[in-house]
Amino acid sequence: MLTIAGILIAVAIIIAIDVPVLLRKKLHKELWLFSFLLCLGTVLGIVQALHIQIANPMDWLIMVYKPVADLVETWLK
Predict the structure, then answer these.
(1) CA gyration radius for the chain?
(2) How far apart are CA 38 and CA 53, in angstroms?
(3) The pTM is what?
(4) In this model, does residue 23 exceed pLDDT 90?
(5) Quick check: 38 and 11 in contact, CB under 8 A?
(6) Domain range for 64
(7) Contacts of 17 (CB under 8 A, 6+ apart)
(8) Cβ neighbours of residue 74 under 8 Å, at least 6 residues apart?
């Protein structure tokens, strides 16, 4: 629980530093991207702090391309 509190405090500090600058410069697209990436990183950090297993993106790629690779391999033999 202390780890999650630390993550949230770090996120609050990052927001306090970066968001006013983005708003002052009227960089709205950058603010949306910044917000999305910060939320994604926060969620992943909290999930890791709670020791929850999440799927590795490489596993998804292997699942998609393995049948294709096997098919090509049988054609080449």
Answers:
(1) 20
(2) 20
(3) 0.71
(4) yes
(5) yes
(6) 2-76
(7) none
(8) none
